[in-house]
Design a protein that fits this description.
heterodimer, A: Helix Hairpins, HSP40/DNAj peptide-binding domain, 3 domains, three-stranded mixed sheet, 11 strands, elongated, B: 93 residues, mainly alpha, Multidrug-efflux Transporter Regulator, Chain: A, Domain 2, three-stranded antiparallel sheet, 4 helices, 3 strands, 63% helix, 10% strand, globular, HSP40/DnaJ_pept-bd (chain A)
């Protein structure tokens, strides 16, 4: 590495202020971001920066002058990551792109303006970005459908129609509700990923919904009409005489709406629940019930 | 690579207050989405540039305003030139 005093163009007796001023003058000329088109600027800038890292620090400069460290043994500046110019020159759009510096050229009538305009048109008529949102809805809303309103960070709102039968993770596309486009590009779309919050009562499999429902011993043995919750509200269902734990009853058409019409079914799995606390009369009856004692549910057939 | 605000603060080494100030001054323009603001690598590089303008070049806030404004125009110009060259069938940059 060359002599840092020479690199900065100062004398060995230069004051710290002189060194800083010399460095700043060079940095302005050589900083890669201030010279986006000069590929050699980066190397020169690194050399100048290394020289200043050495001479701009009073302690390091003293040790260099005393011969304790040489210019190449000086701490190297940390490895450079990319400069701003590496991103700003990229072809993809970024928020800092600015064409006001030559818009006047494009207003004129010559070939150059025509070429510029043509080049810009592709960019100018770019479609707006798609914007992504997330929305959580209740299980019942996913089955019955719903109208939801999302509040946007800018204070605006977005009305979202949830189609009946929607599945968790499904993405809804609202055409033209994304970021505005430029020129004739048209706006992007809003993409809403919908999460369905689980309801502990219901389990959905395809278009069918399963629910476990407690029934009393008397309802199981004698049958009866009971109220059953469904995703779209409670309905009345007949429990046949002699039902049991594990008996599955079907409520036709009470499942999730199917794509292309119709609906799945709701299956109601019964669970017989004995009275709590235990009932003395029931106990007395069962202890005197010979046939009940003779029945072994674990025996095959 | 997309970064949320926390990751961006960590990556760029900026203080929250400084970040808010720079956004207000439009030195940084993060992407707005429903789940908050997001930053890209270009923003990290821009932070580095602004820092170097402050420390190495000694530019004050007003100077940085002007530098960024002109620099954005310069890059817009460079891009237009690159596209022009492509349209005319010239060598790729």
């Amino acid at each position: 590495m060359s002599n840092p005093y020479e690199v900065l163009g100062v004398s060995a007796s230069a004051s710290p202020a002189e060194i800083q001023s010399a460095y700043r003058k060079l940095a302005k000329k050589l900083h890669p971001d201030l010279n986006p088109g000069d590929k050699s600027a980066e190397e020169k800038f690194k050399e100048v920066a290394a020289a200043y890292d050495l001479l701009g620090d009073a302690d390091k400069r003293r040790r260099f002058d005393a011969g304790e460290i040489d210019a190449s043994g000086a701490e190297r500046p940390p490895p450079r990551q990319n400069y701003y110019r590496d991103y700003a020159g990229a072809d993809t759009g970024h928020p800092y792109a600015n064409t006001s510096g030559f818009s006047d050229f494009m207003d004129s009538d010559d070939i150059f303006a025509d070429l510029l305009r043509r080049g810009q048109r592709a960019q100018a008529n770019r479609r707006g970005q798609d914007l992504h949102y997330r929305l959580a809805i209740d299980f019942s809303e996913s089955i019955a459908g719903a109208s939801k309103r999302i509040t946007l960070p800018d204070g605006g709102t977005l009305d979202v129609k949830i189609p009946p039968g929607l599945v968790s993770g499904q993405t809804l596309r609202l055409k033209g509700k994304g970021a505005p486009g430029a020129g004739t590009g048209g706006p992007g779309d809003a993409l809403i990923e919908v999460e369905v919050l689980p309801d502990p009562r219901f389990e959905r499999e395809g278009d069918d919904i399963t629910i476990e429902l407690a029934v009393s011993l008397s309802e199981a043995v004698l049958g009866g009409r009971i109220r059953v919750p469904t995703a779209t509200g409670a309905v009345t269902m007949a429990v046949p005489k002699g039902s049991n734990t594990g008996t599955v009853l079907r409520l036709k058409g009470k499942g999730a709406p199917k794509r292309g019409g119709g609906s799945g079914d709701q299956f109601v799995k019964l669970k017989v629940v004995l009275p709590s606390p235990p009932d003395a009369e029931l106990e007395a009856f069962v202890s005197g019930w010979a046939k009940g004692k003779a029945f072994d549910p674990r025996k095959e057939g | 690579m997309r970064m949320d605000k926390q990751t961006f603060l960590k990556t760029s080494g900026l203080q929250v207050k400084v970040l808010e100030l720079w956004i207000e001054q439009e030195w940084l323009v993060p992407q707005q989405t429903a789940s908050g603001v997001f930053f890209e690598e270009i923003d990290v590089a821009r932070v580095r540039l602004i820092r170097e303008l402050q420390s190495r070049i000694g530019a004050n806030d007003a100077g940085i305003d002007v530098i960024l404004h002109l620099m954005d125009q310069l890059h817009g110009m460079r891009r237009a030139m690159a596209e022009l060259r492509r349209d005319m069938g010239g060598p790729q940059a």
